[in-house]
């Protein structure tokens, strides 16, 4: 089974269909055409839909996923809103699988952001962050640099993910991953774990360079921590785009992964997403390089 770990509802406000049942139908059809069986669905962007109250934003996402075993709703939270912790409670109570955050107006180390992550971790829920330059219409680069996410290291049991391999800071993203891997070994009681979402952000011709750095030059074991995604959206799921990226990525995995590439792909496209969501109980044995090795 293959999943798309990064799907938006209402990515662009102007053409968003307000009927969740129709969006679900379109999405399931689009996923199927792209050889995918489900995915992670983010509720609408709180900045673009600021006139929707939190209940409406959540409900739209829940309704889009309703009755589908392989659609996993995530609540998109903006901790700058004064009632943000009430929103976290509301989303947890409704049974979301995790939280989506884009640090447009705050730093990852902002106390409000850390409070969300802490509460998510206490409830066994993951947090998926945008990382890298963001097409959000704001001055936000300094918030979205991968090294800022070191702030997560003090949150016990948190599973978090940096999307887009932090394009264009992919080397920094890889180094931060190495740090979290080392901390995972060094402080097992903390066991905060970082995942990387390879959703494009990378221009097509850059993909090979990014994957070469990630999978060959880094010498880090990424088999259990990469996830596939498309950044497509529910009301107009782009199957051609999803197929194109799978084809490109698959060819690169065949080229760059020396051992058991089928198992690698199974992890990137499915098993890592399920473990991130807390659905799978797989306990991977990761190779963790030490200083001086
Ligand atoms: Zn996105």
Explain the overall architecture.
Helices cover 38% and strands 13% of the residues. It is of the alpha/beta class. It has a single domain (3-277), classed as Metal-dependent hydrolases (TIM Barrel). It has a 9-stranded parallel β-sheet with strand order 8-7-6-5-4-3-2-1-9, with helices on both faces. Strand 4, helix 4 and strand 5 (127-129) form a beta-alpha-beta unit. The mean pLDDT is 94. It binds zinc ion. Residues 6, 8, 231 line the site of zinc ion.
* Alpha-beta classification: alpha/beta
What general outline do the C-alpha atoms trace? globular
Looking at this structure, what is the CATH superfamily? Metal-dependent hydrolases
CATH topology: TIM Barrel
Biggest sheet: strand arrangement: 8-7-6-5-4-3-2-1-9
Which molecules other than protein and nucleic acid are bound?
Answer: zinc ion
What separation lies between the terminal Cα atoms?
A: 37 Å
Which oligomeric state applies? single chain
Instruction: Supply the number of structural domains.
Output: 1
Q: Compute the number of strand runs.
A: 9
**What is the helix fraction of residues, given as a range?**
25-40%
Q: Report the major sheet.
A: 9 strands, parallel
Rg measurement, Å: 18 Å
Question: What is the mean pLDDT?
Answer: 94
CATH uppermost class: Alpha Beta
Number of helices: 8
- From N to C, what is the helix and strand string? EHEHEHEHEEHEHEEHH
Beta content: 5-15%
**In CATH terms, what is the architecture?**
Alpha-Beta Barrel
Topology:
Layout: E1 3-8, H1 20-33, E2 38-42, H2 54-65, E3 71-76, H3 84-94, E4 98-101, H4 111-122, E5 127-129, E6 159-163, H5 170-186, E7 193-197, H6 207-217, E8 226-227, E9 232-233, H7 239-256, H8 261-277
Parallel strand pairs: 1-2, 1-9, 2-3, 3-4, 4-5, 5-6, 6-7, 7-8
Helix pairs in contact: 1-2, 1-7, 2-3, 3-4, 6-7
Zinc ion binds next to strand 1.
């Amino acid at each position: 089974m293959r999943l798309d770990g990064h799907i938006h509802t209402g990515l662009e406000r102007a053409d968003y269909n307000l009927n969740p049942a129709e969006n679900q139908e379109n999405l399931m059809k689009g996923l199927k055409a792209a050889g995918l069986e489900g995915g992670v669905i983010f509720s609408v962007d709180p900045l673009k839909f600021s006139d929707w109250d939190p209940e409406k934003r959540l409900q739209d996402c829940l309704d889009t996923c309703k009755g589908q075993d392989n659609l996993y709703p995530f609540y998109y939270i903006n901790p700058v809103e004064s009632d943000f912790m009430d929103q976290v409670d509301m989303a947890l109570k409704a049974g979301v699988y995790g939280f989506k955050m884009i640090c447009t107006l705050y730093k990852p180390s902002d106390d409000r952001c850390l409070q969300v992550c802490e509460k998510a971790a206490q409830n066994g829920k993951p947090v998926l962050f945008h990382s890298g330059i963001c097409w959000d219409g704001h001055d936000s680069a300094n918030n979205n640099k991968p090294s800022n996410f070191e702030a997560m290291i003090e949150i016990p049991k948190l599973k978090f993910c940096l999307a887009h391999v932090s394009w264009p800071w992919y080397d920094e993203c890889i180094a931060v991953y190495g740090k979290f891997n080392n901390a995972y070994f060094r402080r097992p009681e903390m066991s905060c774990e970082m995942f990387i979402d390879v959703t494009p952000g990378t221009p097509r011709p850059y993909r090979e360079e990014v994957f070469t750095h990630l999978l060959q030059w880094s010498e880090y074991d990424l088999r259990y921590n990469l996830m596939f995604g498309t950044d497509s959206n529910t009301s107009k799921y782009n199957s051609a785009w999803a197929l194109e990226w799978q084809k490109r990525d698959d060819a690169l995995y065949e080229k760059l992964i020396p051992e058991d590439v089928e198992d690698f792909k199974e992890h990137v496209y499915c098993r890592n997403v399920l473990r991130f969501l807390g659905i799978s109980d797989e306990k991977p044995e990761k190779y963790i390089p030490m200083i001086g090795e």
